[in-house]
């Protein structure tokens, strides 16, 4: 008997893998929502806890420190336990963190809750890519990774104007309680739906375009300990180039989007809270557009993945230059297009960073390699958030707002990091992929 849901035949592996994709995307949606949600409730948190910009940066950065710290063990566990078990366990940790954050009586407990959220949602992205490597062919991987990033990063869209309205309706505390309930539902769905490989559903293993058996290629060689896995990855120079570029490029963008974008628009351009939330939506909207677009271009254009990556990084640098060289206050007409392009280039570069890392190593090292590279942007964010708060506090607030000079300090730091991110990836040498 054929089981169908919304036109998807669940006895067909090509259809079932779409169901897996949507379940993982829903979890990643929540991970991205939490990533930048503090920018919407920044003033609420300052008021509730009597915090300044530096304290808020430290609290927000707890997510990124812990998210980054769990990536290597999550990668190894994805290769050993299997991604289904990892996703379910870590989603449960995230659920507890969201609830604790919503009920926090003070900044210390809120920081602990934020840290638990970082740990929990840190167990989604790498296991998802491990699952995709078992369910999708190599020539489909960049496109599917980009699409996954796009669907998941709709959470960044939700963390702008929609979350603004939710907070105005329920308050920031009850909004997080509601999100914890939604997370609990997704945990149950994940355990019921996810399977590590087609064979777990009784289907034949995936066959790559070159005729190789994906499951056989993913078999770990005898005697391959965790230490040997790490050694193989760390001895690859291209791995370090990709990781450093991700570090310099990812942290400043995530910091601005997740912490200072709304205050900047309100303090410097006199936007209302709703107007700022609406403008903020252009960053994740660009990400949603750019992630699959750049991924599909990299899969199809003969110029190679590196050329597409360099184009994305260069275009983003130009847009940050608009903010820097206008003295921190470009004409409002330029803000929307720059936000959209920066978001698109961020999504495109991330999908390419992940795909390039996967292709540098054999399939049985996919989880470990991506788990070791993925923390780079989040360690950078964890460092850049309090650092940017410090740069702003050097100038100091005027009442409850920061002046233009404070934000210009941040734009200078962002631009320098972007230049370093572009320069780091230029020497990259990639293997030929069919």
TrEMBL record:
The chain crosses the membrane at residues 14-33, 85-103, 115-136, 174-194, 239-262, 274-296, 308-327, 333-352, 364-384, 404-428. InterPro entries: MFS, MFS_dom, MFS_trans_sf, MFSD1, Sugar_P_transporter. PROSITE patterns: MFS (PS50850). It is a multi-pass membrane protein. It comes from the Bacteria. Gene3D superfamilies: MFS general substrate transporter like domains. It is found in: Lysosome membrane. This is Lysosomal dipeptide transporter MFSD1. Homodimer. Interacts with lysosomal protein GLMP (via lumenal domain); the interaction starts while both proteins are still in the endoplasmic reticulum and is required for stabilization of MFSD1 in lysosomes but has no direct effect on its targeting to lysosomes or transporter activity. It holds the Pfam family MFS_1. It catalyses: L-alpha-aminoacyl-L-arginine(out) = L-alpha-aminoacyl-L-arginine(in); L-lysyl-glycine(out) = L-lysyl-glycine(in); L-lysyl-L-alpha-amino acid(out) = L-lysyl-L-alpha-amino acid(in); L-alpha-aminoacyl-L-lysine(out) = L-alpha-aminoacyl-L-lysine(in). Lysosomal dipeptide uniporter that selectively exports lysine, arginine or histidine-containing dipeptides with a net positive charge from the lysosome lumen into the cytosol. Could play a role in a specific type of protein O-glycosylation indirectly regulating macrophages migration and tissue invasion. Also essential for liver homeostasis. The lineage of its organism: Bacteria, Pseudomonadati, Thermodesulfobacteriota, Desulfobacteria, Desulfobacterales. The keyword Ribosomal protein does not apply. The keyword ATP-binding does not apply. Belongs to the major facilitator superfamily. Its main location: membrane. One of its GO terms (cellular component) is lysosomal membrane. Residues 20-433 form the Major facilitator superfamily (MFS) profile domain. Keywords: Lysosome, Membrane, Transmembrane, Transmembrane helix, Transport.
């Amino acid at each position: 008997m054929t089981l169908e849901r919304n036109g998807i035949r669940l006895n067909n592996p090509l259809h079932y893998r779409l169901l897996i994709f949507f379940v993982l995307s829903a979890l990643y949606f929540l991970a991205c929502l939490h990533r930048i949600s503090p920018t919407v409730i920044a003033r609420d948190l300052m008021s509730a806890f009597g915090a300044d910009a530096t304290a808020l940066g430290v609290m927000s950065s707890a997510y990124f420190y812990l998210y980054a710290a769990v990536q290597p063990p999550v990668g190894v566990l994805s290769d050993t336990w299997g991604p289904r078990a990892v996703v379910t366990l870590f989603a449960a940790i995230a659920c507890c963190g969201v609830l604790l954050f919503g009920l926090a009586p003070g900044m210390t407990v809120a920081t602990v809750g934020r840290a638990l959220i970082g740990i929990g949602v840190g167990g989604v992205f790498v296991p998802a890519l491990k699952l995709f490597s078992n369910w999708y062919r190599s020539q489909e991987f960049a496109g599917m990774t980009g699409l996954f990033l796009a669907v998941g990063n709709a959470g960044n869209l939700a963390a702008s104007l929609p979350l603004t309205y939710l907070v105005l309706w329920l308050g920031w505390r009850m909004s997080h309680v509601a999100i914890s309930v939604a997370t609990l539902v997704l945990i149950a769905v994940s355990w019921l739906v996810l399977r590590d490989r087609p064979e777990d559903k009784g289907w034949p293993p995936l066959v790559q375009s070159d005729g190789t058996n994906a499951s056989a290629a993913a078999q770990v060689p005898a005697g391959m300990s965790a230490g040997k896995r790490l050694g193989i990855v760390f001895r690859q120079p291209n791995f370090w180039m990709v990781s450093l570029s991700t570090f310099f490029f990812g942290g400043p963008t995530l910091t601005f989007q997740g912490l200072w974008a709304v205050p900047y628009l309100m303090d410097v351009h006199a936007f209302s809270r709703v107007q700022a939330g609406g403008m903020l939506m252009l960053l994740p909207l660009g990400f949603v557009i750019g992630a699959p677009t750049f991924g599909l271009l990299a899969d199809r254009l003969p110029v190679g993945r590196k050329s597409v990556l360099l184009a994305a990084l260069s275009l983003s640098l130009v847009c940050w230059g608009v903010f820097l060289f206008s003295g921190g206050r470009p004409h409002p007409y330029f803000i929307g297009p720059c936000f959209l392009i920066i978001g698109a280039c961020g999504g495109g570069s991330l999908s390419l960073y992940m795909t390039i890392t996967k292709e540098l190593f054999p399939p049985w090292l996919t989880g470990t390699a991506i788990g070791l590279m993925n923390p780079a942007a989040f360690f950078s964010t964890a460092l850049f958030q309090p650092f940017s708060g410090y740069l702003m506090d050097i100038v100091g607030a005027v009442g409850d707002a920061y002046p233009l000079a404070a934000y210009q300090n941040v734009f200078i730091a962002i631009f320098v990091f972007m230049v370093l991110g572009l320069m780091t990836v230029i020497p990259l040498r990639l293997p030929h992929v069919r």
